[in-house]
Every structure is written in C-alpha cells, then in structure tokens.
Amino acid sequence: MRYLSLITIVIDRIFQIRRECNEEFISIGSRNRLQMDVPAAALQENVDATSIRQVGNTPLVQLTHSRFGEEKDVFAKLEWFNPAGSLKARPASWMISAGEDRGLLKKGMTIMEPTSGNTGIAITKFARQLGYKVELAIPEGVSSETKEKLRSGGAKLLVTEDDLCPRVGPGTDQSIALAGALIHNHPDQYYMPNQYENEANFLSHYRGTGPEIWEQTHGKVKTFITGIGTGGTITGVGTYLKEKDSSIRVIAVQPQKNHHIQGLRNLDESEVPEVLKRRYDVIDETVTVTDDESFHMVNELANNENLFPGPSSGAVMAGFQKVVGSLDNGPIVVIFGDDASKYKSVYKEFGVFTTEAYEKLRINSRFQRDSENY
Predict the structure, then answer these.
(1) Residue of 72, 88, 242, 342 with catalytic role
(2) Domain spanning 56-83+200-367 has what CATH number?
(3) Active site residue 246
(4) Three-class SS of residue 299?
(5) Per-residue pLDDT tens for 142-195?
C-alpha cells in the first residue's frame, strides 16, 4: 500500500509540475541544499572506510600516438579506476558524507538525486554500503545499460521525459525539476545531495583531483581540459591549479545542442548549474563539439591507443583537437570520466563500433578497471 501511495504521489506531482512550471520555476531542493561554507575537514569521515580509500588516486597515462598532438605531451586521467567506474565517485562520496556530517542525511532516509547516470551509480554503491535507500530521477535518453546498472544496484528509477516541464531545458534539467519537487513535500524522508548546487562537488575536485594532477605532473601541467556537466570538475581542478600557477590554461568542452553525450551539457540549451556559476571565471575558453566529432574520437582512441573510453572522453579529445595548435608546450591533462562499459547500445546506434569490435575492445583494451569494484 505504501508503494502504491508513493506512485500516486509521484503521478499527481508530475501533473502538478506540468501545470505550474510555466508560472514559477521550481526551487531545487533548497531545504537540503549544502551551503558554500562546508568544512573540508571531516567531509568523508562517516562513509565506509574501504570505499573511501579507493576513491581517487587514479592513473595519469600519456597518449603516445601522433594523432593526439605530435609534439605535445598529452596525459589522460583515467577516472574509470574509481569505485563505481567513474569520476563521479569523487563528488558522490563527498556529498553523502557532508550530508551526514551536517545532519541532513540520517538513518532511515532515502537519497533522492537527479542524474544522467554516473553520479547515480556511485551514490547507489555507497548508499547500499551505508544502508540507505536510493531513488533517482533520470532522463529517458540515458543508455539502457546505465538504467540496468542502476536498477541492479538497488536504485528505484523515476524516468523523466523531455516535455515534463517545458519551462526548463531537456535531459537532466527535467530530472532536477522532478527530484526537487518530490523532496519539497517530503523533506524529512529524502536527502537530495544535488550535485548541481552542492559545494562538496567542487571540494571533491579542489581537494582531490586537482592536487593529484599537480603531483602527478610534478607541478609542470600547462593546460587542463575537461567536459562540462555539473561544473564541479572544471571549477574544482581549475581553481586549484590556477592557485598553484595562474598561467595554467583551463579549457571547457561542451557538446552540441540536442546531443547524445551522456554526462555533459550544452549551456546554451540547459540551465547553468550553480556549482559552475560560482567560479565560471576560472574557465579560459569553452569549445563546442558535435556528436560526430566526439564519437569519431572515441574510435580514434580505441584504434590508436587501445583504450575503451566513454563518449565524454571522445568529446574532450575532440575539443583538444580544436585548440591544440594554440596550446603552450608542456603537459596537457585531459579527463576521461568513464569507460565504454555502459555504452554498447549507444555505440551501436551511432555506428562507432560493431558488436564484434566492441567486445574485442572490451576484453583486450589497455588500462582496464577491476570489474569487482564497479
């Protein structure tokens, strides 16, 4: 009965969103919003120690083929070595721990989060270890493999259509609206980390990813390139690196409008996340890439580097190709957010790999993560 009641509440709220969204923009989980004064210390004290020790310290590998810059030294940070297989393990662990530390997340509560996949997978993994239930608002366009991964991990999915609320943008903006609406009426039952606003997202990269890159390049990094999703990675890493050396160039890559690059967003068609707004000026240049350019670079990385990258990695390398001629000599660091394990259907749909080529690459590619930790 409780399950049926929840379904009824969700359905009623969806129709209410449709009626109200053109009159008043939905406030996104303000009661659970983490303010900017979150103490960096003790943010991760409460989360399972084994998982936390495995977050971060991901490898930085040099791309050696001349296709990727000839005389340039290009290094890729392979974030699929994190628990749950992606970059998003970093903010997920920090946001959960910050919620517990501030008393916003308590035993018996359900974690509700809007996600395009990777943050949801990471939250589900950590939440299961800590005994929390998880509900995720996710765009309908997310790959079938991602949805299956989330369901098999124990998450309940609320799949959002692009026309749920015409006032807001497509994709994850719809999911943000639905998640925020649900917790608005049940603040004591849900905790929404809200990666799009949560300062712990920024801190996970400012305290983690950024220092790692600085140390791994022995302080010689000259350019940092990554995709735009929530803005946590580019602002966190970019801020840290520029504090070390203000001459370091920070370049953001965004996909085309109406794109198919899971995890990234086009800022011309989507709401700019608060995390990104706070430190937008850390970005020196923004490059826009097409789906075709991104998927082509996925294929190039597979053929020339024997890597198994996700679509966002292809987008980042497509962005790199557009600016490489203007970059200073010295180490260039790019972020590879996840591998291709969740995108078999996407790559088939867009002709990136045949089924046979995909499977061969999955088995034989370099730098494979431990599947048991995924």
Answers:
(1) 88
(2) 3.40.50.1100
(3) no
(4) helix
(5) 889 999 999 999 999 988 775 434 333 445 567 666 666 777 777 789 999 999
